Amino acid sequence: MIEANYTVTGMTCDHCARSVTDEISKINTVSDVSVNLPTGAVTVCSSEPVNDVDVRAAVEEAGYELATK
Question: pTM surpassing 0.90?
């Protein structure tokens, strides 16, 4: 299992967190997404390394921004 950590900006409520979780979960190899709403921290677990470009696209599709690492 591979774990990657990101920071997402603009989330303010549980609906925001669910939207981000739902979009990132659509990436093929992703098995779990955990969002810490107060900090904006997002942990992505996958069977293979996830491309940061794919994560950024998913976060933007949900209406938020991925902070620069």
Answer: yes
The pLDDT of residue 22: 98
Query: Letter for the amino acid at 37?
Result: L
Q: Are 20 and 12 in contact (CB under 8 A)?
A: no
Task: Give the pLDDT confidence of 17-32 residue by residue, as tens digits.
Answer: 999 999 999 999 999 9
> Can you tell me whether residue 15 is helix, strand or coil?
helix
Q: What is the DSSP string of 21-67?
A: HHHHHTSTTEEEEEEETTTTEEEEEESSPPPHHHHHHHHHHHT-EEP
d(CA 60, CA 11): 12
